[in-house]
Protein: Flagellar basal-body rod protein FlgC
Organism: Caloranaerobacter azorensis DSM 13643
Amino acid sequence: MGVFNAINISASGMSAERIRMDIISKNIANANTTRTSSGLPYRRKMVVFKEKNSKPFSYYLSNYSHKNLNGQGVKVSAIVEDKTPFKKVYEPGHPDADKDGYVLMPNVEVVKEMVDMISASRAYEANIAAINSSKTMAMKALEIGR
Protein backbone atom coordinates (compact mmCIF):
# COMPACT_ATOMS: atom_id res chain seq x y z
CA MET A 1 0.00 0.00 0.00
CA GLY A 2 1.57 3.25 -1.11
CA VAL A 3 1.19 6.72 0.26
CA PHE A 4 -1.21 7.65 -2.54
CA ASN A 5 -3.48 4.72 -1.65
CA ALA A 6 -3.79 6.11 1.86
CA ILE A 7 -4.66 9.53 0.49
CA ASN A 8 -7.24 8.05 -1.90
CA ILE A 9 -8.84 6.05 0.91
CA SER A 10 -9.11 9.13 3.11
CA ALA A 11 -10.46 11.14 0.18
CA SER A 12 -13.21 8.53 -0.31
CA GLY A 13 -14.08 8.90 3.38
CA MET A 14 -14.29 12.67 3.01
CA SER A 15 -16.56 12.31 -0.01
CA ALA A 16 -18.85 9.87 1.83
CA GLU A 17 -19.05 12.11 4.90
CA ARG A 18 -19.89 15.10 2.69
CA ILE A 19 -22.85 13.17 1.27
CA ARG A 20 -23.86 12.25 4.83
CA MET A 21 -23.75 15.94 5.78
CA ASP A 22 -25.92 16.79 2.77
CA ILE A 23 -28.56 14.26 3.86
CA ILE A 24 -28.44 15.47 7.47
CA SER A 25 -28.93 19.06 6.23
CA LYS A 26 -31.89 17.91 4.14
CA ASN A 27 -33.40 16.20 7.19
CA ILE A 28 -33.04 19.33 9.33
CA ALA A 29 -34.47 21.54 6.59
CA ASN A 30 -37.55 19.29 6.33
CA ALA A 31 -38.07 18.76 10.07
CA ASN A 32 -41.47 20.52 9.85
CA THR A 33 -42.55 19.49 6.33
CA THR A 34 -45.98 17.95 6.79
CA ARG A 35 -46.74 17.31 3.13
CA THR A 36 -44.47 16.01 0.37
CA SER A 37 -45.33 15.07 -3.21
CA SER A 38 -46.62 11.71 -1.92
CA GLY A 39 -49.06 13.54 0.38
CA LEU A 40 -47.33 12.25 3.53
CA PRO A 41 -44.94 14.07 5.86
CA TYR A 42 -41.23 14.10 5.10
CA ARG A 43 -39.53 10.84 6.12
CA ARG A 44 -36.01 11.03 7.59
CA LYS A 45 -33.24 9.73 5.34
CA MET A 46 -30.08 7.89 6.37
CA VAL A 47 -26.84 7.15 4.52
CA VAL A 48 -25.47 3.61 4.38
CA PHE A 49 -21.71 3.23 3.89
CA LYS A 50 -19.99 0.22 2.36
CA GLU A 51 -16.33 -0.64 1.94
CA LYS A 52 -15.23 -0.32 -1.68
CA ASN A 53 -14.36 -3.65 -3.29
CA SER A 54 -14.99 -5.53 -0.06
CA LYS A 55 -14.51 -9.26 0.23
CA PRO A 56 -16.08 -11.55 2.82
CA PHE A 57 -14.22 -11.84 6.12
CA SER A 58 -13.49 -15.53 5.41
CA TYR A 59 -11.37 -14.44 2.43
CA TYR A 60 -9.03 -12.53 4.71
CA LEU A 61 -8.83 -15.41 7.18
CA SER A 62 -7.86 -17.97 4.54
CA ASN A 63 -5.59 -15.70 2.47
CA TYR A 64 -3.86 -13.68 5.16
CA SER A 65 -1.04 -11.47 3.99
CA HIS A 66 -0.52 -7.74 4.25
CA LYS A 67 -0.99 -7.56 0.46
CA ASN A 68 -4.56 -8.82 0.86
CA LEU A 69 -5.42 -6.05 3.30
CA ASN A 70 -5.31 -3.27 0.71
CA GLY A 71 -8.52 -1.42 1.39
CA GLN A 72 -10.03 0.76 -1.27
CA GLY A 73 -11.89 3.17 0.95
CA VAL A 74 -15.58 3.69 1.49
CA LYS A 75 -18.57 4.49 -0.67
CA VAL A 76 -22.22 5.36 -0.13
CA SER A 77 -24.11 2.19 -0.97
CA ALA A 78 -27.61 3.53 -0.33
CA ILE A 79 -29.70 6.35 1.03
CA VAL A 80 -32.61 4.78 2.89
CA GLU A 81 -35.70 6.11 4.60
CA ASP A 82 -36.12 5.76 8.35
CA LYS A 83 -39.24 3.66 8.90
CA THR A 84 -39.98 4.93 12.41
CA PRO A 85 -43.56 6.20 12.73
CA PHE A 86 -44.50 9.83 12.22
CA LYS A 87 -45.24 11.97 15.28
CA LYS A 88 -48.83 13.03 15.93
CA VAL A 89 -49.24 16.59 17.14
CA TYR A 90 -52.52 18.17 18.21
CA GLU A 91 -52.86 21.31 16.11
CA PRO A 92 -56.46 21.71 14.93
CA GLY A 93 -55.81 24.92 12.97
CA HIS A 94 -53.15 23.36 10.76
CA PRO A 95 -54.18 22.81 7.10
CA ASP A 96 -52.97 19.18 7.25
CA ALA A 97 -54.86 18.35 10.47
CA ASP A 98 -57.22 15.36 10.39
CA LYS A 99 -60.84 15.51 11.59
CA ASP A 100 -59.67 15.10 15.22
CA GLY A 101 -57.19 18.00 14.93
CA TYR A 102 -54.01 15.90 14.77
CA VAL A 103 -51.20 16.56 12.30
CA LEU A 104 -48.69 13.91 11.25
CA MET A 105 -45.22 15.40 11.64
CA PRO A 106 -41.95 14.12 10.12
CA ASN A 107 -39.97 11.50 12.02
CA VAL A 108 -37.00 13.88 12.16
CA GLU A 109 -35.52 14.71 15.56
CA VAL A 110 -33.35 17.80 15.20
CA VAL A 111 -31.22 16.94 18.26
CA LYS A 112 -30.41 13.52 16.79
CA GLU A 113 -29.54 15.16 13.47
CA MET A 114 -27.21 17.59 15.25
CA VAL A 115 -25.42 14.67 16.95
CA ASP A 116 -25.09 12.95 13.56
CA MET A 117 -23.78 16.20 12.08
CA ILE A 118 -21.09 16.45 14.76
CA SER A 119 -20.13 12.81 14.11
CA ALA A 120 -19.89 13.38 10.35
CA SER A 121 -17.87 16.54 10.88
CA ARG A 122 -15.40 14.74 13.18
CA ALA A 123 -15.03 11.87 10.71
CA TYR A 124 -14.36 14.37 7.92
CA GLU A 125 -11.72 16.09 10.06
CA ALA A 126 -10.12 12.72 10.91
CA ASN A 127 -9.79 11.95 7.21
CA ILE A 128 -8.13 15.34 6.67
CA ALA A 129 -5.69 14.54 9.48
CA ALA A 130 -4.90 11.17 7.88
CA ILE A 131 -4.21 12.86 4.52
CA ASN A 132 -1.95 15.40 6.20
CA SER A 133 -0.05 12.62 8.00
CA SER A 134 0.42 10.76 4.72
CA LYS A 135 1.73 13.92 3.06
CA THR A 136 4.11 14.54 5.96
CA MET A 137 5.45 10.98 5.75
CA ALA A 138 6.00 11.34 2.00
CA MET A 139 7.86 14.62 2.50
CA LYS A 140 10.06 13.06 5.20
CA ALA A 141 10.85 10.16 2.87
CA LEU A 142 11.89 12.63 0.15
CA GLU A 143 14.14 14.47 2.64
CA ILE A 144 16.00 11.22 3.34
CA GLY A 145 17.11 11.12 -0.29
CA ARG A 146 18.79 14.53 -0.11
Summary: The chain has one domain: 3-31+45-81+108-144.
